[in-house]
Write a structure and sequence with these properties.
The protein is of the alpha/beta class. Helix content is about 40%, strand content about 15%. The strands form four sheets. Strands 3-2-1-4-5-6-11 form a seven-stranded parallel sheet, sandwiched between helices. The longest helix has 22 residues.
Length: about 325
Amino acid sequence: MKKALVLGCGGFIAHHLVNRLKDEGFWVKGADLKYPRFSKTACDEFLQGDLRDQVFVNNLVDQKFDEIYQLAADMGGAGYIFTGENDADVMTNSALINLNILDAAHKSGSKRIFYSSSACIYPEYNQLDPDNPKCSEDSAYPAAPDSEYGWEKLFSERMYASYARNKGMEVRIARYHNIYGPEGSWNDGKEKAPAALCRKVAMANNEGEIEVWGDGIQTRSFLYIDDCIDATIALTRSEFEGPVNIGSEEMISINNLALLIADVSEKKITINNIPGPEGVRGRNSDNKLIGEKIGWQPKYTLRDGIEKTYPWIDQQVKNNK
């Protein structure tokens, strides 16, 4: 039986990843500060602890694993990342986690390790036009991320790549673009746009009004969780190191995303644009490289994914009244 280690598996993406690995017959060990919020972990062994603690990590990585997935980070949506109030924590916490995990993985004899970077590493100067952002993998330098979160991710990409060059690790690096779906954060201050807007629509009256940060013209693309897991596993088992984008090329403005969610909900919603953290003006995944290297492309349209996500968040809102 193959063995996998999943870090950050109390979180949204890694929790879904554990479920997929178990379906494939893996024995899975996981770790996080917390257990998954919405459903029980499928890990064969789950250690609750702090990945910033080197002693905890060394005890965790106590054997050779066939695959290691490092998705643990201090992160969140625009309300968490772009205010500037959490910068020191974001930089310190995530850097410590990655330093500890890489060192322990190397010492255990484990080779194949996946690292989840972010589209936030891309330069702000290439994302000023909401209709024509440039996010191809080769556009990352000269570096100028729009947040400290992006700077830390870029540093960690280079650290993982250096372990591949100098220590024989088989590193795989992906830059995630806005992953969403059921069982993600929706009301804790770290939720991203799809979940936040689903929540606002679910809480609104049938002909109500919701608030959208900024002018709403800023654009993004959003990838459904099942597609993310497919791409993550395919990249990890490929012979391509990356970095490579994992995201959707279906770009949409935030106002139009809100209207799409309203349509799925069958409510007639109006939008009130208010000042708030926005991030870059435009961002869209460029999937040319991942298509060439591992033949992956998303299966779900944005509407497909929202039709699966909105009912789940609507039920959470009802359960929390």
